[in-house]
Amino acid sequence: MATLAESEQDFSRLPDLPADVFTAPLKKPEHVGDDWLEPKQTVYDSEDDAIWNDLFKRQMEMLPGRAATAFMEGTEKLDLGRGGVPEFGKLSEELDKLTGWSVVPVPMLIPDHVFFWHLANRRFPAGNFIRTRETFDYIQEPDVFHDVFGHVPMLTDPVYADYMQEYGKAGWKAMRYNRLKALGSLYWYTVEFGLIEEKPGDIRAYGAGILSGPTEVVYSVEAESPNRIMLNVDRVMRTDYVISDLQPTYFVIPSFEDLYRQTVERDFDKLYKSLGPGFTYANTAVIDVDYVVNRGTLEYTLRGGRGSGAKPV
Ligand SMILES: [Fe+2]
């Protein structure tokens, strides 16, 4: 059966990228190999550790009742609040016992095909640096706080852990069809900005982009501005997204099992053949087939969003 992933692909070593595949050109720093892994994790000083501790404290004050239960449990299982930037070796040991994942340091954003390959091998690449006090609230490039605090707790959930591995395998199939943008949308609206309805009317965030910052934690689950729509994979993969502002629309899953089933069991060959190279729907759109949880006012977005002075309400 054709699925999300390329079942015949061997991921034991980094596969060669076919010549007709388009990926973003990134310049590899000289000190890393083809796997883009840092030889070792940065040794953080006391100010770096203090930044981690302050970020951790701020987020943990906002998350109860807003973050997915699996996320909150993950932070405890991995003891992310033990003080200072977590040591990846120790973190990986604990994560390995739970779901067989590990965390590996990378210098910066890495090429898609290398990222997918690590995920397919249950390795999560995490930034080998931490933000400064000047960029405390928002950074464009994912640092160790976004990557480890935002992403890693969810990897303690067995079903979510499997979803992430399948996503990595799926990347190779999407590349062959040159449909990375569409698959990127799925990542964006699930792994980075996903919401889950844990009980009727109880919507929580599980996306790392939401959970690693102070504003979107509240906005995504409580504000009247954004649309909240039940996730439909075909629809999401046709939907545009913004990378530098709060989302006008979030997609909600009923469970991680449902997310896994919708993506892994879907015939993506058919889907990729039907998709155009661009997106069909604007990120503000609500369409006829949507199962709408909350139709948003879009007030924040319509007032101009980030930089306009609009309140995230
Ligand atoms: Fe991320």
TrEMBL record:
Record domain Biopterin-dependent aromatic amino acid hydroxylase family profile: where: 1-313
Cofactor(s) demanded: Fe(2+)
Chemical reaction(s) catalysed: (6R)-L-erythro-5,6,7,8-tetrahydrobiopterin + L-phenylalanine + O2 = (4aS,6R)-4a-hydroxy-L-erythro-5,6,7,8-tetrahydrobiopterin + L-tyrosine
UniProt-recorded Gene Ontology molecular function terms: phenylalanine 4-monooxygenase activity
SUPFAM superfamilies: Aromatic aminoacid monoxygenases, catalytic and oligomerization domains (SSF56534)
Pathway note: Amino-acid degradation; L-phenylalanine degradation; acetoacetate and fumarate from L-phenylalanine: step 1/6
Keyword terms: Iron, Metal-binding, Monooxygenase, Oxidoreductase, Phenylalanine catabolism
CDD domains: pro_PheOH (cd03348)
EC numbers on record: 1.14.16.1
Pfam families to which the protein is assigned, alphabetical: Biopterin_H
Superkingdom as given in the UniProt entry: Bacteria
Family: Belongs to the biopterin-dependent aromatic amino acid hydroxylase family.
Annotated PANTHER family: AROMATIC AMINO ACID HYDROXYLASE, PHENYLALANINE-4-HYDROXYLASE
Protein name stated in the entry: Phenylalanine-4-hydroxylase
Organism from which the protein derives: Qipengyuania polymorpha
